[in-house]
Amino acid sequence: MKYNVIYRSLFLCMLYTMCFFTSCRGEEVEKVIKFSFEDFDTIRISSVQVYNETYNVPLFTPLSIKVVSDSLIVILDSKLEEHFLTIVNTKNANVSYALGKGNGSEEALYIRNMYKKNDYVICYDKSGKVLSVKIDPKTLKSNIQRLTKLRTEAMFVCPTSDNGYLEESETCRYSRTDSQGNKLDEVGVFPVQKTPSGVAPVNAVFPVSMGLSPNLNYIVSANQFWNKIELYDGIGSYKKILSGPMEDDSDIQKRELPFGHIFVTNPSYLVFQDVCVQNEGFMVGYIGLDRRKVSKDKGALLKGFNRIMTFDVSGKPLKMAEFDHYIQCFDYNTKTKELFCVVEIDSEYKIIKYVINQAKDVFLE
Questions:
Q1: Cβ distance 142 to 123 under 8 Å?
Q2: How far apart are CA 361 and CA 41, in angstroms?
Q3: What is the mean pLDDT of residues 97-118?
């Protein structure tokens, strides 16, 4: 039930370091910003005057939640019996389901990523299909359209400002495609260039949570296993890397197996999980676990995160919310100041809505 969680670690001291990376286009870049916990204004949610409401919606393996309007939220749940998406009207608590499981043109085999764009969500299926799901807020009926088809091997895909996509590349960080899935070029920067073993970075050990801002100006890519957040413009051109407070001593190792080989990280960390990208800034869930230190407590690896960090569009730390419970995924409505979180309560997943009433505690204006 809890295996949808992966963890990530954060942030540290707001000073520039002359750390050089090479982008996929060959230019050297040096914008690596370090930050620490002390750079944030910390908010403890348990002590903040918030109004919270719990929605009793059956959830099994929630992977992502998106606020698509002031009255609609969509949850990606991989273990629903017949569908992938749970739709909730937050005004009247009505529930509906969308995106059936199957091989049909409006169905999916397994949704790897869900992104918000305008007032609808975009889903990437492991078959390579990219589907848009638009929902009528009154009837909760969905209109599903196939937008394009990408490579089936990609583990993460993000829409871009020119109606194209960034997808995991076979030879570089990301491949940039047009709206029809045709490859345009390769972009991006691996957050680690050199390792002690000399193994070149590969996307297999750099899974991310990604998001595009509503105004299409920038993309955030938060690494799950590495202490790095990548910032790009709306079409994937590199801007900078943020480096958090955890250790940066992981190595990439290639392990031969009877059926081939795999790449692993050693030591292994769980750092960031889930992102919410807004015009005013972005938010990331922070775990910050060294897996060696919790190897005997398997449950500790599966809880989720209890900190959410916010940054402005330039990557400057703003606020860090500390919760008295663990979160699986979240999204934030800057208009209503409502934070929607999927949490586990008494071995069941619940949706909790927080309304931040005090201006000083608002995450993003």
A1: no
A2: 9
A3: 92
